[in-house]
Protein 1
Amino acid sequence: MVGHMPFDRSTGTTITLSNLFHGWPKDRLAQVYTASTEPSTEVCEKLLHFPPREHYLPPQYYALRMLGWNGSTPLQGIPAIAAVREAADRRRAVAAVYAHLVALADLSPLHVPPRVVRWLRDYQPDVVYSMLGSVRLTRLAFRAAEVCGVPLVPHFTDDWPATLYPHGELGGIAERALRSAVRKLIRLAPAGMAISEPMAEEYQRRYGIPFEIFANSVDADFFATPQPQPVGRDRPVTNLVYVGALHLDRWRSLLNIAASAEAISAAANPVRLTMHCPAEDVERYRRAFAGHPQVHFGRSLASHEVSDALAAADILVHVESFAEDTRRYTRYSVSTKIPQYLAAGRPIFGHGPAELASMAYIRSARAGVVVGVQDPDLVTEQLWKLCLDTSSWHEFGRNGRTHAERHHRRERVAARFADVLRKAAEQGERRQVGAGGWS
């Protein structure tokens, strides 16, 4: 497995990875990762940290150190780049400068030292798997498969190949390099993985190989939550709960829901929106919600605490951004938390562009209500209706849980995931035999 983050349960991506590889024999799994993060050995014990100081060439590495980089933390943390990033939120011209800086680091030549090559070959993998996410990681995954002479299975969870460099960064060089890296990688892939059915269909058309669908899966803890109790004399407040990050402009859609909660509370029964977000997001966006007394920032949650937070909800909230760039990036994505929401047996209130796969998924599971347009009055109307119609909570919750049982049970998903990788490895073996070696 090749990736930026090691196996742990600190982000949506690493939670999904840990669940997909659940039950995998530890002696049959190894990972190369680039982030300076302490790994978990819950899933994988054979780990190789490949830090930036090794995969950047010396001139690049020391140039970055001169900018204030410590050689281990993400490049975005360099004071000079961080300052540009903060300003980019406010000024379009500065955002363009930041995009060029990111592209320059991403496209810099990748150096794979002999010790990494030896480690890869000594392990003798049957297949390489990666969620990719950048030109640099795409090149690293390709290099790992190439030096080991094995097939590669890419797993796409967002449409980053079509949206990472949309504004001609580095004079268009960044987009061309990205397309070239992905096309080159696809040549080693007998099959790919996508996070949703729309993505699988689009990527099969785009890249000409079959794609299997794998989103996050959930364990038994999420299915054990009790049924919600109707709001009444003992529980006068309808509790909306959002669990997740605020980046990708999701905070703006949450502001719409916060305003609706305030309007409903003023006219009828009180509604409270509790948001459990990463600590850095709370610090960055708290001020935007200061004028909304119905909003409560709950504490940031560890992965094992999420099921209890969902059980405390009457209605679960999922949002996506209406910003054009972001909706292109997330159009085929299904958030890590949606399978968790479905398994929790709570109604879901979704607010984001109707064409996004995540919103379509809530509708297809018949697990809640989706407002797919940016219309504050409609958001208030539909949220109010859902808050009042407590009889629908059980129906939506039952539908969601049934869907999660069928499609997101961790043991079933992990077994199917292992089978797809096994078949990819077998196809690679046949290709090697037929070609007299990997081409």
Protein 2
Amino acid sequence: MVALDLLGRRWSLRVLWELREAPAGFRSLQERCDGMSSSVLRQRLLELEENRLVRRTDDGRYELTPAGRELGEAIRPLDRWARRWVAALDAPDDGAEGPGACVDAEDAGEPGDVR
């Protein structure tokens, strides 16, 4: 439950997502996270550092740790689902309901399968 508490905090996942490709400085992260105050960003970075998901580089930028990169891989299926879900919301309503309505047949697997 510790992970859910940390990741459920506003902006935590967004900060991790923005660091998925490459290290970034504080100002760059703040610009990428439209609407996040500097105090909230500072707090989230501190929490993510304390939990060893993010670390500071020698030049002062922030990057994902190995655990942070592993978490990033774990949430990629959520990103894929979210993209299909948004597309389904934008499509005309065909009577389908629930998250499974936006799963392509080729993506459907056994319950509990993670891709």
Protein 3
Amino acid sequence: MFDTFQSAPGGCALPELSAAGVDCAALSAEQLVDVVAAVERLVARAHGLQLTALAELGRRCAAAGAGEGHPSSEYVGALECAAAEVAPACRWTRTMAEHRVELAAQLEQRLPATLAALSEGRIDLNRARAMAEATEPLDADAAAVAEARVLARAGSQTAAQLRVCLRRAVLAVDPVGAEHRHQVAVGKRRVEVRQLPDGVAELIAPMRADHAEAIYARLSDIARQVLAAHRAGSRAGPDRNRPVHDDEPGLDSLRADALAWLTLGEPMPGLPVPAIDATPPAASTGSGAIGVAGNPTANSARPAARGCAHCGSERPKPLVRVVVPVGTVLGVTDEPAELAGYGPIPASLARELAADAQWRRILTDPATGATVATETRSYTPPASMSALVRARDGTCRFPGCRQPASRVDLDHVLPWPHGQTCPCNLCSLCRFHHLLKTHHGWRLRIDPDTADVTWTSPLGRRYTTSADGIPPLDGGSSAQLRLARLSLRRTA
């Protein structure tokens, strides 16, 4: 019975699963995971068949002349006619039916390899939809090039990871169009309020990505300082035996409070006005570490910012991290840059940000793109090494996690002092996945050459993730020097 799930590379054939008579209670934990994965592949293959049928139905409606011979005000196109047929059959709304028929046509006509991957169970519907949405602005030839760049890895990525790779591919294959779309999108920046239940509303503000990341960093800095003040006050209170964290607010709540505090100019209710640390972080010179250099005089000409309780006063400017190919900085190429916490950004925005920056150089291996190693004898990595590892990783290194490396822990893969404090033994882990590794039986190892991280679950299943922060250059380009801006200070 269980062999049914492993018999074909793409998973079960459509009729096989219903006939398998699976008794989940009789399966091992590892087999249960296999069943879940097999069903996911089965659903993907079913979606592939469904989209193929929808594309054929759309063609037949077009061949039958649907919508022809009517005034423009009464015209209904072939796709709309096909959607009208399937909507009642599938209990779909008109909008959902039209979107599904349009997706089928896009995949069949522009992205046939993506439709094939879906039909074989190698990607799911969400990934297929992401492919279609990301390549929609491109012409057919450029869409095919972007598809070829990302499809091979798409099955091993989450939909969110795939979208980042797609944005990078679209920027690379159509830099001129990407610049135009960026300017249009920035022109639509706005602030909206969306009403939510229970006396809560949501503030939505589409804006430039670097501004959004800087604002988030600023709110996080304030939230951490308020939380530290709250903990200090709890320790000094009359009930010193009460656990410090019993009633402390979370960082997410404090970020929201900080946003209100900054914009309204009022103290956060129930909490002390934070004394903002106005001293800019010192630039690290790398202390002679191989492949890493700093700018020790970047802040020397700038007056120290003053923190106060009024929104109009001068404030320290938050840290924004960007990884930019040297060719882009010099204007030789338009290869996209990587904004920490966001992903790829157009070359024009990267050059604009580069004009107001402190830089560290990060050297990468010409063959693999891996960063050049450094090490220290202490437990805590120096600032230059931390920056290098975070720039290399991009995100938490657990499979599928998109927490930016700038907001997570640096973990010794082999615990110190048995393991060195060096990039080959450090990786970025969010707190949750750090706890999984430390206390819940997950193991990992890191390849010292490629920085690939291989995880082994408590059930013995293995998963490998690649460093996401400094993508390899296409075609073995000799421009392997990447400049990582580590302390850009801009007004949010």
